[in-house]
Specification:
Elements: H1 3-34, H2 41-56, H3 63-84, H4 88-111, H5 119-130, H6 133-142, H7 150-172, E1 186-189, E2 192-195, H8 196-218, H9 220-230, H10 232-237, H11 242-264, H12 274-288, H13 294-314, H14 319-325, H15 327-337
Antiparallel strand pairs: 1-2
Helix pairs in contact: 1-8, 1-9, 1-11, 1-12, 1-13, 2-5, 2-7, 2-11, 2-12, 3-4, 3-6, 5-11, 6-11, 8-9, 9-11, 12-13, 13-14
Length: 345
């Protein structure tokens, strides 16, 4: 291996690591606030990429109808509770956001020639379709069992992952899709040719991490999520709604997943089940951070990306095995250095 090859592999590793860092941050955030191991994080990556690809091919994305169905179920649950309590205005608001919004979005996407729209508008429509599924999923699947043990929440996550993969096959088909790059610009740095899409991935990832840091440090909702992550019972006693915290957390996780899918779709071919492997590598990075430390998770993501890139050169047939084997010494070290703590009731 010469220096040119090492630089190319390092570029690939940093690009992949930037995506894994975003997914790891989302996984850590969801687990810290809700105790949910968000296995289906990768499915939001695939749904984001493939929804954009369907728009660019001039086809109405099937994820729109999934959003409508989920919104209708949330409307029945929350709207019914509001009507029973005599809160007609609240019931109307629930129906407007959870049912009116998806139906209006379906009418807009179905009535426009979305394949002729600018890329920025296509990306915004993609996020508008996929991201609201996050808080709706929390309301339908996790909110009723929010106080259940972690194992029960994990089983629900596994079931949702399997269901989303199956729906992905139904919605998008078995063939992979790839979207056009955001820009055809490329930067030549000695023997290294850096594509514009690589710069987009790294720049957006860094900006999003900085934005999340500012959100958690300077906004009221961000501080509420931090308080819930540190002490759920104490935060609830201080008036912070665990339901609101859960929905906001799932909204951020869905946004990160869908945006990551949009960013990597021009770089790699995305299949209906591609998100699982991508999300699993983000999970390895989150484990390195102990599902608690954001900086360690981000550093672990870069390590995973670089290890994957160099493993693909030295032993491409075993690169996935090498990456996932990284979790074994990490878990062993944490097992030897951590004290067992009983799960709080």
């Amino acid at each position: 291996m010469d220096m040119a090859i090492a630089l190319i592999l390092s570029q690939d590793g940093i690009t992949n690591g930037a995506i894994y860092a975003l997914l790891a941050l989302a996984l850590v955030l969801v687990f810290a606030v809700t105790r949910v191991i968000f296995i289906q994080q990768g499915e939001f990556v695939a749904y984001g990429a493939l929804t954009l690809a369907m728009m660019q091919s001039g086809v109405l994305p099937a994820t729109v109808w999934m959003l409508v169905v989920m919104g209708a179920l949330v409307t029945v649950l929350d709207g019914g509770l509001a009507l029973k309590a005599g809160q007609g205005r609240r019931a109307a608001g629930v129906a407007g956001w959870n049912l009116g919004y998806p139906l209006a979005l379906a009418a807009v996407v179905g009535g426009l020639a979305v394949d002729a729209l600018p890329l920025a508008l296509q990306v915004l429509l993609t996020l508008a379709i996929v991201v609201p599924m996050g808080p709706m999923m929390y309301r339908l699947m996790y909110q009723p069992i929010a106080s259940a043990p972690v194992l029960v929440l994990l089983i629900v996550s596994v079931a949702l992952h399997i269901a989303m993969v199956g729906l992905g096959l139904l919605f998008f088909g078995a063939e992979g899709q790839r979207t056009p790059a955001f820009s055809e610009f490329s930067l030549e740095l000695g023997p290294l040719m850096v594509s514009a899409q690589t710069l987009w991935v790294v720049a957006v990832s860094v900006l999003l991490i900085v934005a999340l840091y500012q959100f958690f440090g300077r906004t009221l909702y961000g501080k509420a999520l931090r308080a819930t992550a540190i002490n759920r019972v104490g935060a609830q006693l201080m008036g912070i709604s665990p339901t609101l915290a859960g929905k906001l957390t799932f909204f951020l996780a869905a946004f990160i997943g869908a945006l990551s899918g949009v960013l990597i779709a021009p770089i790699t071919t995305i299949y209906y089940d591609t998100g699982f492997l991508i999300g699993l590598k983000g999970f390895v990075a989150a484990i390195i951070g102990g599902l608690a430390s954001y900086p360690l998770a981000a550093a672990g993501a870069l390590a995973v990306g670089l290890l994957e890139a160099f493993a693909s050169f030295w032993a491409s047939a075993y690169k996935e095995v090498i990456v996932f084997t990284l979790i074994i010494p990490v878990l062993l070290w944490r097992s030897l250095t951590s004290h067992h703590v009983e799960e709080e009731e």
